[in-house]
Design goal:
Elements lengths: L1 H49 L2 H20 L7 H19 L5 H8 L10 H5 L2 H7 L5 H12 L4 H8 L3 H23 L1
Length: 191
């Protein structure tokens, strides 16, 4: 009877290990598909919040590395896109906490900050794209992050809410106020 129980336990253990391996392979495929689908968008997200290509690449890679570690620990995020954006956003916030601020001129000299954007986007229809990008670093972080997510990363308010952990209403208000502040800053410079 003891030997029978031991065989049953061994058999159960082997079955569980095979099942676990299959689950891990499925998660690997999900992760690789997510990387292919979102790597460029995560890079843009980091770049437009940091204005530094190399740092944006590093943080994008770190976001995927941390997501991979999370998945390998047996966790399964319900929305992988929102999860990766959340990790990237947290990494950007951590960076700003550790880093001193730079003026726009310093950023231009250091990084050659002059990205181009498709001007067909909603925000860019009413505002000159290059001028808007030049003013983006001047926005407070709480507005800049949601404006970047909405108009550069093309995320919807519900997706931004999932990433930031804020309510949809809060996100929508911040987007509206951020765009308003951006317009005001641009108008003040032309006067």
């Amino acid at each position: 009877e003891v030997q029978t129980l031991q065989r049953v336990y061994r058999l159960t253990f082997v079955r569980n290990m095979v099942l676990l391996r299959r689950m891990q392979q499925g998660m690997e495929q999900l992760f690789f598909k997510a990387y292919e689908a979102y790597a460029d968008a995560i890079f843009r997200h980091c770049y437009f919040r940091l204005n530094d290509r190399e740092l944006a690449k590093d943080l994008m890679q770190e976001a995927f590395t941390r997501t991979w570690e999370y998945v390998q620990n047996g966790n399964n995020p319900s929305n992988i896109r929102a999860f990766i954006y959340r990790v990237a956003s947290n990494l950007v916030i951590d960076h700003y906490r550790k880093k001193k601020s730079y003026s726009l001129e310093e950023l231009t000299e250091r990084t050659g900050f002059d990205p181009s954007i498709d001007t067909s986007d909603q925000l860019m229809n009413s505002i000159d794209a290059k001028r808007a990008l030049a003013f983006l670093p001047k926005l407070p972080e709480q507005y800049r992050s949601v404006v970047v997510m909405r108009y550069i990363d093309d995320l919807s308010p519900p997706e931004i809410a999932a990433i930031t952990g804020e309510s949809q209403n809060t996100v929508s208000v911040r987007i509206h106020r951020g765009v308003k502040k951006l317009r005001e800053a641009m108008e003040q410079e032309t006067i």
